[in-house]
Amino acid sequence: xxxxxxxxxxxxxxxxxxxxxNRRQIMAGLAGAGVASLAGPAxxxxxxxxxxxxxxxxxxxxxxxxxxxxxxxxxxxxxxTAPWSVTIDGMVERPGxxxxxxxxxxxxxxxxxxxLRCVEAWSMVVPWNGFELADLLALAGVRPEARFxxxxxxxxxxxxxxxxxxxxxxxxxxxxxxxxxxxxxxxxATGLYGKPLPNQNGxxxxxxxxxxxxFKSIKSVVRITLSDTQPPTxxxxxxPREYGFYSNVNPTVDHxxxxxxxxxxxxxxxxxSKVPTLMFNGYEREVSALYDGMDLVRNF
Length: 300
Ligand SMILES: Nc1nc2c(c(=O)[nH]1)N[C@H]1C(S)=C(S)[C@@H](COP(=O)(O)O)O[C@H]1N2
Ligand SMILES: [Mo]
What we know:
Elements: H1 11-14, H2 17-20, H3 23-31, H4 53-58, H5 71-75, E1 85-90, E2 96-99, H6 100-106, E3 110-117, E4 122-132, H7 133-140, E5 148-153, E6 173-177, H8 178-181, E7 187-192, E8 195-196, E9 206-208, E10 221-227, H9 234-238, E11 262-265, E12 275-276, H10 284-287
Parallel strand pairs: 1-10, 4-11
Antiparallel strand pairs: 1-2, 3-4, 4-7, 5-6, 5-10, 7-8, 7-9, 11-12
Bound molecules: the ligand Nc1nc2c(c(=O)[nH]1)N[C@H]1C(S)=C(S)[C@@H](COP(=O)(O)O)O[C@H]1N2 and molybdenum atom.
Molybdenum atom binds next to loops.
C-alpha cells in the first residue's frame, strides 16, 4: 500500500487546551492570575496516551466474526481485503464503485489520536491513520438535496463465521447526518500506529466518529449512500429503546440497563478505577454546535 505518513494533526490540534495541558501545567497556571478561562470541567488531566497495539487489536467488537472480544482477532484473519471497492451512490454527482487503491492514491493519510468510547462503558485511545470522510465524499460529489449518509459493511458468509447467527440483521449498517459526516473530526481509518489496519479493526476502510459511541464506527465498509431520509442503523433496528440514531457519548443519558457516567479504560489493569465519561467523549468544543437546540435525551 502506498502509505503516506503525514502527521498533520496531533493531539494538540484536536484537543481542547483545557484537556491537553498536563496536570503540572494546569497547576502552574492556577497559581498565577487570569486563568478563569481554563478553570472548566474536571477534564484537565485526561490524557491521550494511546493504548498498546496489543490492546487495540485483541479486544474488539466485530460481530461478523463472533461476539467474544477475542473472536475478531482469532477469526478475521481469513477476510480478503484486496481487491476492495466501495460503492458510493444515491445523491451524488459521480455514483459508482471506487477502487480502494484509487481512493488511497487521492487521499492524504494523517494520524489522528482519538478516544474511543464503547456504549458498553469501556474506552481506549487509538492512534488512527486515515483521511477525512469529507474528502472521500468530495470525490463522488455530494448533491445539494442530500441530508444523510448511510454506510454498509461487507456481508461475506464464507469469510465471516459470525453472520451465521442472527445476532443482528446483516449486513451491519450505520448512518450519520450529512453535517456530522462532513465534520473534520469524522475520518475513514485505513491504519493504526502507521501500519495497515488489521482486519479485526475493520480493514481496509472503517468509519471513525470519535464523539459517538463506538458502534457508529462501522467497519469494512463496502457501500456509502447519500440520501434525504434518515437511514436505518443496525443497533437501533435491533433494540430501538436502547440505541438511538444519534448515539452521542453523553454521561448524563444512561443506557436503560447501565450508567454511562463513567468508563473503564482498557489496559488499566483489573483493579483500575473507572474514570468519568466526558460529554461528546471530550469533543464538546468541536461538535456541540451540531446539536444546538436539540433535546439530547429524546435524540439519544
Ligand atoms: N461491521 C461492524 N462494525 C462495527 C462493529 C460490528 O460488530 N460490526 N462493532 C462496533 C462497536 S460496538 C465498536 S465499540 C467498535 C470497536 O472498534 P475496535 O474493535 O476497532 O476497537 O466497532 C464498531 N463497528
Ligand atoms: Mo461498542
